[in-house]
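Dear colleague,

Thank you for sharing your sequence with our group. We've completed the structure prediction you requested, and as agreed, I am returning the results in plain text so they can be pasted directly into your records. Please verify that the sequence below matches your submission; if there's any discrepancy, let me know and we will rerun it promptly.
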Amino acid sequence: MMYSAIARRFFKFDSMKVNISELQLTISTLLEKLKENKGNEIDLEHDYFWSLSSEDIFNIDENPKERGLGQLSFDLELIEKLKVENFEYALGYHLEYISNILRALGIENLHAFQ
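Please find the predicted structure tokens below.
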């Protein structure tokens, strides 16, 4: 299987290791470019989204058994609470909340970099 040079920078495909520093730099750069093109605050058009369980999301051999409903405004609230608490109670779930926001920004701003 062929992978791009960019993908190979982030992942060692034999072990699926993610280079956090490289990923952080890429995310920061993309957010900075989005801010340059769209401003510091961006209104999201959608609030609710379909969510798959942790068991279902990576099980590509079967159709999802269940799906839930996620809410971006709730994710933003939890991220803000984490900042107010000085990241004292940071959990892996916070990465999921942030990923939901990043996904929405990406979907709703596909042409922001043109």
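Summary note from our side: The longest helix spans residues 20-38.

Kind regards,
the structure core
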